[in-house]
Specification:
Structural class: alpha/beta
Strand order of the largest sheet: 1-4-5
CATH architecture: 3-Layer(aba) Sandwich
Number of helices: 3
Largest sheet: 3 strands, parallel
CATH class: Alpha Beta
Radius of gyration: 13 Å
Helix content: 25-40%
């Protein structure tokens, strides 16, 4: 991943992810759809407002319905690899 200039910052719950997006906005983000009892939809909307490219990651296949206002957001299905991420975030 380093050769593609992709860094893994670590997982975060909804509150931590939202705080990160406000305090130190990333260049791009991969959001796990399922955060236990929550989803990352609110964080996705904030990233959109900030103009930060992002994609959703999900292990639910077609079982997760992305809200209509986020339908253009790329979805990376688990398990995924570097090529999947490069397709979600073209240079």
């Amino acid at each position: 991943m380093a050769a593609s200039r992709i860094s893994i910052l670590g997982g975060a719950g909804l509150i931590a992810a939202a705080a990160l997006a406000l305090a130190a906005p990333p260049a791009r983000a991969l959001l796990d759809v399922n955060l236990g009892s929550e989803t990352s939809i609110a964080v996705a909307r904030r990233l959109f407002e900030l103009g930060i490219p992002y994609a959703f990651a999900t292990g639910y296949g077609d079982g997760f319905r992305i809200p209509e206002d986020l339908a253009a957001v790329p979805v990376v299905k688990k398990p995924y690899g570097a090529e999947d991420l490069l397709r979600a975030f073209p240079a």
